[in-house]
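Fold description:
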Amino acid sequence: MIPSPQGAPSSMVHVPLDDRSYQIDITSGLMADAANRIHEAIPDLSHAILIADAAVDEAWANQIYEGLSTGPKQIRISRQTVASGEPSKSIAEFERLLAWVLSEGGDRRSVIVAVGGGVIGDLAGYVAASFTRGIRFIQVPTTLLAMVDSSVGGKTGINLPGAKNMVGAFWQPSLVLIDTEVLSTLPERSFLSGLAEVVKYGVIDDADFFSWLELNAKSLVSRDNQALRHAIQVSCECKARVVGEDERETSGRRAILNYGHTFAHAIEATAGYGKLLHGEAVSVGMQMAAKLAIDLGLANEELLKRQTELLSACKLPIRLAEADPVAMLPVMMRDKKVAHGKLRFILPTELGSVELVSDVSEEAVVNAIEALQ
């Protein structure tokens, strides 16, 4: 840990991407200092464009706005809110924000500051990637899910009807600012949803971290700042390693981050966006993926048992009675991992290790879904 100016604990994770490298700053209780850290990361800042989730605009975006407004350097500040929820990741909202940035006098020196969860990060990041063919942006994630997943790695985008994240761009942020104190105001269900992605990192890359999660699940559920900082740091370090090796998903390495997501995206699309939180769908999706791995002889029952117990300790769903394999299969066939019409899945072989499995039969997929109904 490195000391912050106020003495609060802080740590940094470096995302190694040559000239696109950046830092993830993980702290507790330093949101009021966010404006100073933004200026340090972007010394030539002259126009900040704040795009915030309406639910956190007053509580958290306002602190950044006030800090930028009263700082020693005079800059222009534009501010806009976006309605909470997955429906905002739409072509219509994307177009609205682009038109607004233009009306605010945005140019290639402007910097977008995205304040909110994954929806805002994906949407505002895609605006940043698209306006004048790309301007800088900063991620200030306010949900656990965004802190450990969507704010790191440069994936931005929006949804099409019935197909999640099918339009977008790889566009790396200049800085990610994470403050665990922000999570104190997050609704319980939203907070717990983020733990699914934390568990994912233990399954796909770090068996020791999985064991740590088993021992510390109670502290995480109670939002202990020290436990949260450690879980977020290890999760971000894992994602940073993977992204550094395969930024644009060309080698296949980055695909491991999609463990459980092929099932999860199909669950979300068939249940209707917004009815099931993303992390909840991922939790059930990981269960289905683990069951599929067992059925294919890749993993043993103990893996599913430990995963089930950890997800349950994190108060996440482990089954979905409403899962409809008939409706889910066509959605899976539109998944980005489909190759030549063949279903492919990231499946665990043991804790800390997964592999991409090709040409999985529809029957095996249906059996895995039905087993977790």
Residues 225-245 form the longest helix (21 residues). Residues 2-185 form a domain with the Rossmann fold fold (CATH 3.40.50.1970). The radius of gyration is 20 Å.
